[in-house]
Amino acid sequence: MEKHRQQWRRFCNRLMAGLLALLGFAGCTDPMDDDNGPIICEYGTPSAKYNVKGKVLDADTQKPVAGIRVVSGVLYPSEGKYRLSYYPDTLYTDAQGEFETVRGDFPTDKYRFIWEEVDGDTYKKDSIDVGVGKFSGASGHWYEGEADISVTLNIEKEGSE
Prior knowledge:
8 strands; 5-stranded antiparallel β-sheet
């Protein structure tokens, strides 16, 4: 009885390995089958590097504001809308009102910043979408390169219009 179980397990393992190999190759299309030219069939996910720098200023006085939480991340196109990435960065401004991060993510043309005060109710929560621009230093294949994003965020006080 044990011998039959081992044979059945070996058969199932070989069958599953064969199916996975077949499905892996079937996931690719014929390189010359597209009207727009050849399609390179590769496995992986496109990626890019984002160098993000910013500063938060009081909208009235134009002075830097420390201790502001800035949530930032790429915007993915999804069903005609844009959606913030699953893993946005949460940053806090320093004494000069500045924040900085470097992140790797999916290449896209928009980046979102959401800022709010966390230790009081002096300032309003707000957000802005910024165009990414061109990527530089692409190595081909799945790496699109890196983009520099620099932004100045003006935070308004509660009750101001």
